[in-house]
């Protein structure tokens, strides 16, 4: 009986990946000693399957986003040569698929580092490996964002799509992606349902695994989020 209870309390990787969406404290408490490798593997596989299965529905957003980038390059006096446009657009399609492959492992490494820094500032004690675990489990809402985009792609007229921001469940949806500066668009892209959901899960993870108050967990998560926003906004400012 005790063995059964212990096994149940530990939870499988798939159970953790699902349950972290609504009970992150419970998941982090039982997974604090687990390695991150299997979570990365499972989530990468799931994300890739979702991306490949929904590519046709999301492609109009990819194409529209590419068109916006071409317009912005032309506005800066750096238009892409016509003979290179077709190749670049094809590459953009492959880049979207690559996103499905790299989102989780790169997120584990980079976001994990930001979580580790935020945890240090919040006086939470955990290893970099545990920070990667927090970052990986907190990326589940980002995986769901692909599904949300695909659902919108299924019911939206492709001709009305302006860019990926039209699928955002947040501030970026309500601005013009062409006339709005890339830096502001990058900032607004971080203010949506899935990013906020991710931030909350990170806060809970820092709190539970780092054994600090929930308020300290949110301080650490906000530091990590702020650093992440800076890493997206600064390159846009320099472009």
Quick overview:
By secondary structure, the chain is mainly α.
* Secondary-structure element order, N to C: HHHHHHHHHH
Task: Work out the count of structural domains.
Answer: 1
Total beta strands: 0
The major β-sheet equals: none
Structural class: mainly alpha
Instruction: State the helicity in percent bands.
Output: over 70%
Rough outline: globular
Q: Average the pLDDT over all residues and give the rounded result.
A: 92
Separation of the first and last Cα atoms: 61 Å
SSE map:
Blueprint: H1 2-10, H2 13-19, H3 24-31, H4 37-75, H5 82-121, H6 128-138, H7 140-155, H8 182-189, H9 193-210, H10 214-238
Helix pairs in contact: 3-9, 4-5, 4-7, 5-6, 5-10, 6-9, 7-9, 8-10, 9-10
Membrane topology: Multi-pass membrane protein
Transmembrane segments: 36-58, 91-119, 131-155, 183-209, 216-238
InterPro entries: Yip1_dom
Notes on the structure:
Residues 19-233 form the Yip1 domain. InterPro entries: Yip1_dom (IPR006977). It is a multi-pass membrane protein. It is found in: Membrane. Pfam families: Yip1. With 239 residues, the chain is mainly α. The chain has one domain (13-238). It contains 10 helices and no strands. The chain has helices at 2-10, 13-19, 24-31, 37-75, 82-121, 128-138, 140-155, 182-189, 193-210, 214-238. Helix 4 packs across helix 7 and helix 5 (82-121) runs antiparallel to helix 10. The radius of gyration is 19 Å and the shape is globular. It starts with a helix and ends with a helix. Mean pLDDT is 92; it is low at 1-8.
